[in-house]
Amino acid sequence: MRTPRALHIITGLGVGGAEQQLRLLLRHLPMRCDVLTLTNPGPVAEGLRADGVRVVHLGMKGNRDLGALPRLVRFIRREQYDLVHTHLYRACVYGRLAARLAGVGATVATEHSLGEDEIEGRKLTGGVRALYLASERLGAATVAVSDTVAARLEKWGVPAARVHVVPNGIEATRFRFDEGVRRATRARIGLPERAFVVGGVGRLVPGKRFDSLVRAVAALPGAHLLLVGDGPERAALRRLAAELGAQGRIHLLGERDPLGDGADGRTPGIPALLAAMDVFVSPSREEAFGLAVVEALAAGLPVLHVTCPAIDDLPAAQAPGARRIGTGTQELVAALRGHMEAGARRLPQPPVVRRYDIARSAERLLAVYALALPGPRPAPTPPPGASNDDVPPTGFPARGPETTPIPPGRHVHG
């Protein structure tokens, strides 16, 4: 039996949660996968190529670049993919239609970032919702990254039978705490060895509410903030720190690799930066999953969060180190002061970390693929050590080494 070939279509490959999750997931899918990005073949594209994944840039110029559709159809038809998997709004709209026109019946889409009022930062107008629902009907299945997102999709009108929950995942061993890494990372950044360090990770956009985190840390003399990520709010956050007289304690570190240190060996990645922190804060009012919170828990950090479906959808015993708080800055200040007075402590990895192991997420996704692909479905057998709620393996053979890297910037032509 021939190994199924899959094409993953994504809007862009800059640094972001969905993009990084795709890269990590492909490391655990036992099948041949190529990636096509509609726009912006950024740092994640470089990481995918380093992993041996073929990456193609379509060169789409914007949401209304309708000429991209026939190019995409021709590419899918020429490469004869068995399955197309789309990620993020624009890729889902164009990718599902292109797959249908190219004759691919097995089309799966993942909804990574659906909130109550926004989708990927885009306001949920009637037109946005109507276009999404129209394109959703062209696919075989829609994947939600959490029960919260699944409920939102069903509320929109997506039939429950078409929605499958496949949580985001992490490689927990990358985040396991190491005291030596903690000391070395603090020294690289220039942090005092005994300083109380608060951390946050995410896109620097208004919806993440990192301004409240800057205000809270500024109100705690001696505390430092490591804020990892980039975005349009970076300059405003820097100005706010200066206005509050805390510019020397607020460290805006920019984008960092979630899988490890930089290629130069000297730039700490997210695992090392988490090791340098004492408490992690997610002040965002709205999240589709909350992957950064799970990574922080894997690093043994106590966590304060406003909302995090990855935790909130589960019993409290799954993540005893996570505490939900309100949106007020004073409540955050009080909670941080409590951690500061109690002193730094590391927690054991909670049960939720194993639940969101990336290998388990890959198995769940393979089960969705088995439903979408035509032909007989392999008989399921639970993997060793799996619990009853695990999704079983689906019989896909291991991915071979036949991926073909494409030079950066190459476009698809008919």
UniProtKB/TrEMBL annotation:
Pfam families found in the cross-reference section: Glyco_transf_4 (PF13439), Glycos_transf_1 (PF00534)
UniProtKB keywords: Glycosyltransferase, Transferase
Presence of the UniProt keyword Transferase in the record: yes
Region (Disordered): 376-414
Ranges where the Glycosyl transferase family domain occurs: 182-307
GO molecular function, one term: glycosyltransferase activity
Bias-annotated ranges (Pro residues): 376-385
Domain Glycosyltransferase subfamily 4-like N-terminal: 15-173
Alphabetical list of SUPFAM superfamilies matching this protein: UDP-Glycosyltransferase/glycogen phosphorylase (SSF53756)
Listed InterPro entries: Glyco_trans_1 (IPR001296), Glyco_trans_4-like_N (IPR028098)
Entry-linked Gene3D superfamilies: Glycogen Phosphorylase B
Protein name as it appears in the record: D-inositol 3-phosphate glycosyltransferase
Organism: Streptomyces roseus
Higher taxonomy: Bacteria, Bacillati, Actinomycetota, Actinomycetes, Kitasatosporales
